[in-house]
């Protein structure tokens, strides 16, 4: 059998070679009769087909052309393909939100899925295809802005922060648990690749359904061996004491940030929503400040969250350990665990009868939830064993102005 799909340029039918197969047997290619390397995928035939199309399109940037071509030639399954998508094949391009390092638009892709995300760090995002990150379909270029954009799957509910603002009442404890489990799977995949996200917060997580969450925005993502203590970026409430003290970022820093995301998912309240995100908050976090917990939380989830907040990085759980800890409560066959969890949920529900969920209008005007450069945290004569040699440089414009239409929750 052959799968039919449309090309972006002409809308004509294009065939990708596949064959009859089962889950356990990927079958043989009906054209070259070689074994498929993946279900429904003949690598030699499809690589040749892609190669024959290389002369029919260009991004007008050699590096991007080579990137797309290399990915197509190496693809072992449909999910690994990315394409060059002419901008005229996107219609109704509409602004959605602006984050610290990119702008998100929604659009109808005439030949397929919808979602367009403007981003400069395309290679970083592509590393996570198929690893619990939002699906990427290709690259395009806005001729008006002369900017390259990634075309990604549409996230119906937008950012996790947006979902919590609008749908928190629909989230049962079970659904909140599922959201956290999905996020931990994605974070585990990042860390197992030897990378750290470095900008982990609820604005950089998107939801395609109430519980299907994907990590995105890998603009600051770096190998664990790379730190730049002279240039500190991020969203202050999600940043660790060691990052704000020594410019040090490790996998454990992502775990601390996950703990803050956990607080949001379980309570609806973003950390430190009611105070300025300035040098005073930085100093307090360096000294071990923890955010207020605004409602009763089942004890098993509260313990996991607070372990992530541990002041000492080595005492925080790893992403793999978090995945295991959360997995223990997933439809557990252990009757004692079920009994304990149900008891904790009942206690929480009883205590939260008069709970008032977060109102975005209550956010302090100087609370900033977009990633930014933090020039007022700067090292002088840095030595890892002596944090007292760190000074704060406080400029006059300590809080960067935010445009009237800028969405701070992203």
TrEMBL record:
Domain Protein kinase: 90-332
Entry's Gene Ontology molecular function annotations: ATP binding; protein serine/threonine kinase activity
Pfam (any one): PK_Tyr_Ser-Thr
Biased segments, Acidic residues type: 10-24
Disordered as annotated region, ranges: 1-29
PANTHER family associated with the record: PROTEIN KINASE DOMAIN-CONTAINING PROTEIN, SERINE/THREONINE-PROTEIN KINASE TNNI3K-RELATED
Name of this protein: Protein kinase domain-containing protein
